[in-house]
Amino acid sequence: MSFLSRRIQNIKPSATLSVTQKANELRAAGIDVISLSAGEPDFDTPDFIKKASYEALEKGASKYTNIDGLVELKKAIQKKFSSENQINYELNEIMVNPGVKFGIYAAMMATLDEGDEVIIPTPYWPSYLDIVVVAGGTPVEVFCPIMKLTADQLEKAITPKTKWLLLNSPSNPSGVVYSREEYEQIAAVLRKHPHVHILSDEIYEHLVYEGVRFYSFAHVAPDLKDRTLTLNGVSKAYAMTGWRIGYAAGSVSLIKAMCKLQSQSTSNPTTISQHAAIEALTGPQDCLTEFRDTYARRRKLMVDMLQQIKGFSCQVPEGAFYTFPDIHALMGLKTPQGKTLSSDIDVSEYLLEEARVATVPGSAFGQPHHLRLSFATSDIIIEKALDRIKQAIEQLHN
Ligand code: PLP
Q1: Nearest atom, ligand 1, residue 168 CA
Q2: Among the atoms of ligand 1, which is closest to the Cα of residue 39?
Q3: How many CA atoms lie within 13 A of 233 on its CB side?
């Protein structure tokens, strides 16, 4: 009998983390490695948000709060949904989580029984898959050549066992953003299948570029609001990944069940982080524009440079802070050491060894023959990394 549970043995180590770890090991050995693999803003949390947490602490905010979060924060979230997304939630339809990741975990643990299926369009954020597995469900990957799920693909993937469809727009890793029309087509299919619920992960909401408009799924399909769990948080928009604050909005019964899970696992999200999140949501919002403008400039720089590299074919990301170039054309080429590149993992390893640049292979996201490169880093680093990648790729031969 194994001491470790089957549940835990079924979890794959995060591919994104393992690349970062390899890069860190090289760095620790004194080798200059540039990382384009991280999934978080390189900015510091804005000062006014940090200040709110110091002030809260001075006023004694060191105690437990309600399991589902401070009422003041839930009110700020309620206002955010109504003003930014035109969705009206009651306070008992909202809860605060220790990060969106935990919100997803709580939702899956609260709803999945063995054999329940969860539709996950590719490419996906890898945690979706593992969270579904941990919760005892069956992930159903739907391969999306255009990086977005179509109504047709959804119709074919739904079975009587389907419990959830996971949507993520803007997407990590592809940067695609679903249009209103695309969501309407998806909603039309879902209306025919009332047993399917929708989890909409909107964590990259504020990171959309060049006039692209973000739509919240529950706004586009208000009649499906009760079947939709909307997840969002402060991590990416306000550069607050370490504060661990996300929030969830959905039906009263689901939120209640998720609260039950949270009450017997993490308990309330960290109190001072909740105070910081109130300030993030209700304070001046100029930082969102500043961050977005900076990412937009870096995105252009990265895409322009990628387009100069032979064998890389790069769609321009409409949102989030990643490029996801197609590298099919590199397959079969040989490295100077005589190794034939036969997968995206080979290419990622070659770039780490030869160019000293850490990227994440697309297969980690269910879409092989791609690489994910993060532009949540400085212009100088992007230029240096892409120059090195270009040089390394030029050394490949038939
Ligand atoms: N959802 C997506 C698509 C992400 O890329 C990430 C982080 O990388 C998260 C959720 C996690 O967010 P949080 O920091 O709120 O747990």
Answers
A1: 3
A2: 8
A3: 29
Write out pLDDT tens, residues 214-237.
999 999 999 999 999 999 999 999
Q: 237: CA distance to ligand 1 center in Å?
A: 11
Cα(206)–Cα(326) distance, rounded to whole angstroms? 25
Instruction: Inform me whether the pLDDT recorded for 78 exceeds 80.
Output: yes
Q: Which residues line ligand 1 (CB under 6 A)?
A: 39, 99-101, 125, 168, 172, 201, 203, 233, 235, 241, 246
Q: Is 167 exposed, middle or buried (0-12, 13-18, 19+ CB in 10 A)?
A: buried
Confidence at 16, pLDDT banded by 50, 70, 90: low
**pLDDT average, residue stretch 34-40:** 89
Q: Which residue, judged by its Cα, is nearest atom 5 of ligand 1? A: 172
Looking at per-residue confidence, does 268 or 38 come out higher? 268
Pocket test for ligand 1, best of 77, 122, 125 (most atoms within 8 A of CB): 125
Distance 195 CA to ligand 1 centre (A): 26
Q: Which residues contact 102 (CB under 8 A, 6 or more apart)?
A: 244, 246, 262, 266
Output b/e per residue, 339-372; b: 16+ Cβ within 10 A: eebebbbbbbbbbbbbbbbbbbbbbbbbbbbbbb
Select from 203, 205, 270, 365 the residue to mutate for testing ligand 1; criterion: most ligand atoms less than 8 Å from CB: 203
